[in-house]
Amino acid sequence: MHPTPSRVAAALAVGGLLGFAGCGGDGDDTPRLPQLSPASTGAFSGTCAALAAKLTTLANTTISATTDVAAGTVVGGLPAPAHCLVTGAMNARTGAVDGNAYAIQFEMRLPLAWNGRFFHQGNGGIDGSVVPATGAVNGGWGLSNALVMGFAVLSSDAGHAGSLGPNFGIDPQARLDYGYQAVGTLTPMAKSVIQSAYGRGPDRSYFGGCSNGGRHTFVAAARYADQYDGFLAGAPGFRLPLAAIANIFGAQRYAQVATNPADLSTAFTAAERTTVANAVLAKCDALDGATDGLVQDVEACRTRFSLAADVPTCAGARDGTCLSAAQKTAIAPIFSGATTSTGAPFYASFPYDSGLRGGDVGFWEFIAPVALDTGGVGIIWGVPPENPATFNGPAYALGLDIDAAIARVNATNATYTESAMSFMTPPNPTQLSTLKNRGAKMMVYHGVSDSIFSVDDTKAWYDGVRTANGGDASNFARFYRVPGMNHCSGGPSTDQFDMLTALVAWVEQGTAPEQVVASARGAGNAAGVNPDLPADWSATRTRPLCPYPKVARYSGSGSIESAASFSCQ
Ligand SMILES: [Ca+2]
């Protein structure tokens, strides 16, 4: 067991009096980081109805309702504890360019039995919706969430209505709110609401989300590290404009070999993706010591597997068991990494992995580039934005000049004074000294078979964080790859895990997460069955998720279905 640090010493450290000066007394000369004190429980003060009267002085904020929610009410798929639901909006205004109504709509769910903590939920996609504030941030969602655990949880639409679609990008302030300013605006308001509700502010504050929510988490870790103690980022699309352009680059490649130009999936069918996934497993599955349908040793596989050499080239017509030479030529650059017209990489490579046959790959590869990425690149991020009245997503994607698109997400003008790469991405993302030096912690997970945001981009980020910290960042930030997992969940993977509990233990008790045990969601799983699981897996298979660069390796004995038979090496 790890000793609980003295509350006094921890409080001094929080105040910065010990700061970086405390050194380990065990012969290790690594500077010891401050240990934050644990949160303590609290109770809702007064009634939910009476809370509204206490919130009338919040700056630039209108509270629309405070509503009692009974214990057991299903919120976000799980029975919630008894709580007070606060709904409201900040900074209501009329857009100067488009005349539309804008505000940062939010809700907070405040459990009557409070664990002393605040959780700021980063939402996915292009925001625009106040997703129920449950803090459902763990992989394989469904068994628990931050609200059930007793956190006071905030969710917002990040400053625009979903009914606008990507057209909110016409409004310069809505761009900035989506990028980072809504988070900065909401944070002190939320802490004030908690103060009013419980008689004290949060002891500890956490930020988390997956996909665009992971991006919000990365941005918050860079911009608002003084406001949060723990960060949990899943599949962080922290360079979202470039990821979207790379995805459009992919669509253009698929279009070269699609047999039906109106259906890009005909370029690389489900049967063909299964053929490639099986070829990856044939070369790489056993490298971790277990032939189990999971490639844990991602780096070894990178040099071992070759699309050109290890996937049969069709001798005749395509039949799903081979790729044509033209397909290999078209598809390989998508995985080796999208490039400009001069061959310069601008986003990231994608590893070949077993989850290429997984359920959401077809959506992200063939539908999202024309249906989603276009609106982002053309209207939310480009300077100047395209005209929404005449915008045609599919035509835009397939005709896009990649070099020009990259220039546009880096551009500014008199109306749009901050570029998308500035407002969407964390400034200097590997510079996390504020977070580190105050004792805050960061955990990041990413599916190896994520086909929209690349696990390799997150790996490159983490390598940069390591370099910026003398080669080892594991005392404040850890990165976990999830083999086989698609975007945020799914794929032939163990995608059900609880990193929030692990993060709290690290932040508040100093218990570093050496591994996180993850489960498959097989038949009977309470959170819903993952349809991508292979039939020969146990329904309850478990695996350790290992902090990079460690890899889960089979011990050589024990059940291949059990995490206990594997260790992080
Ligand atoms: Ca394996």
Can you walk through the features of this model?
The structure is a single chain. Strand 5 and strand 6 form a beta hairpin. A nine-stranded mixed β-sheet has the order 2-5-6-9-8-10-11-12-13, sandwiched between helices. It has a two-stranded antiparallel ribbon with strand order 1-7. The protein starts with 6 loop residues before the first helix and ends with a strand. It is globular, with a radius of gyration of 24 Å. It has 17 helices and 17 strands. Helices cover 32% and strands 16% of the residues. It has 569 residues and is α/β, with parallel strands linked by helices.
What's the layout of helices and strands?
Layout: H1 7-14, E1 42-43, H2 48-54, E2 61-69, E3 74-75, E4 78-79, E5 83-94, E6 101-111, E7 113-114, E8 117-121, E9 152-156, H3 172-198, E10 204-210, H4 212-223, E11 230-234, H5 240-257, H6 270-284, H7 298-304, H8 307-310, H9 325-336, H10 361-371, H11 373-381, H12 393-399, H13 402-409, H14 420-424, H15 433-437, E12 441-447, H16 455-468, E13 477-482, H17 499-509, E14 516-519, E15 542-545, E16 552-554, E17 566-568
Parallel strand pairs: 8-9, 8-10, 10-11, 11-12, 12-13
Antiparallel strand pairs: 1-7, 2-5, 3-4, 5-6, 6-9, 14-15, 16-17
Helix pairs in contact: 3-4, 5-9, 5-10, 5-11, 5-13, 11-12
Bound molecules: calcium ion.
Residues 285, 288, 290, 292, 294-296 line the site of calcium ion.
